[in-house]
Design a protein that fits this description.
about 270 residues; alpha/beta; Rossmann fold; 6 helices; about 25% helix; about 25% strand; binds hypoxanthine
């Protein structure tokens, strides 16, 4: 069993903070998912590199349902996910950490629900507060404690990828209210809510988006920026795990209450 799940995005592949690490193969309806489970300061932590240990899985092919279901099956209740993002907002600069509070979805070919079979029924999950506010507060406190500058709000535009955007797309996303652009927060955040997990995305700004950056974008640039800011992200996650309250007081755990017994189970 694990208490907290960490989904490592680009540049975060190794649960190096954990001790007594074992590799679990979790059998889900969506395939077998490899998760590393270990301990940090007495807390049991499940670690999942979203793109695989070698960054071999592109954003549009990530097994989002398998990953969230595997964490759920391991007993995880709270998930902190990291993600590299480009910035459309001149105030959010490369190297900054943003705890996003909203998303705009421009993905195209991703299944966003566990409820797509007749046996499970139909679910229209509420997305008024897509990222768990209580968990975001814990991460914010952790950031303040370890002196990692963090912005507490931002709108994440999720694209299908794997290509980067055109400057025209970035202009449109900006006019729609987007601050950051990335390729993975959706459907992860949606599935986490359907699984009644608390979830937040810790977005690391790695670059200004296409058309704002003076140069063409490269994946190497994103990886370099993640590498430069890896220590901050690690400090932030360690402190978050350390100060996370033992029990949840938010509504995430009742997301499917109106369904009664149809929920995915605890
Ligand atoms: N666009 C989309 N995803 C990203 C970017 C970007 O500019 N930077 C890091 N992930």
């Amino acid at each position: 069993m694990a208490q907290i799940g960490i989904i490592g995005g680009t540049g975060v592949y190794d649960p190096e903070i954990l001790t007594s690490v074992s590799e679990e193969l979790v059998d889900t309806n969506y395939g077998i998912i490899k998760v590393k489970v270990g301990e940090y300061k007495g807390v049991s932590v499940a670690f999942l590199p979203r793109h695989g240990a070698e960054h071999a899985v592109p954003p549009h092919k990530v097994n989002y349902r398998g990953n969230i279901m595997a964490l759920k099956k391991l007993g995880v209740e709270r998930v902190v996910a990291t993600g590299a993002v480009g910035s459309l907002n001149l105030e959010m600069i490369p190297g900054e950490v943003v705890l996003v509070d909203q998303f705009i979805d421009f993905t195209k070919n991703r299944i966003q629900t566990f409820y797509d079979t007749p046996e499970n029924g139909v679910v229209h999950i509420d997305m008024t507060e897509p990222y768990c506010n209580d968990l975001r507060k814990v991460v914010t406190t952790a950031a303040e404690t370890v002196s990692v500058p963090i912005r507490g709000k931002g709108t994440y535009v999720c694209t299908e990828g794997p290509r980067f955007e055109t400057p025209a797309e970035i202009k449109m996303y900006s006019s729609l209210g987007g601050d950051l652009v990335g390729m993975t927060s959706v459907p992860e955040v949606v599935l986490a809510r359907e699984a009644e997990l608390c979830y937040c995305t810790v977005a690391m700004v790695t670059n200004f988006a296409a058309g704002i950056s003076p140069n063409p974008l490269t994946h190497a640039e994103v990886l370099d920026a993640m590498e430069r800011n890896h220590a901050n992200l690690k400090k932030l996650i360690m402190k978050t795990i350390e100060i996370l309250p033992g029990t949840r007081g938010c509504r995430c755990r009742y997301s499917l209450a109106e369904l009664g017994s149809l929920g995915l189970g605890k």
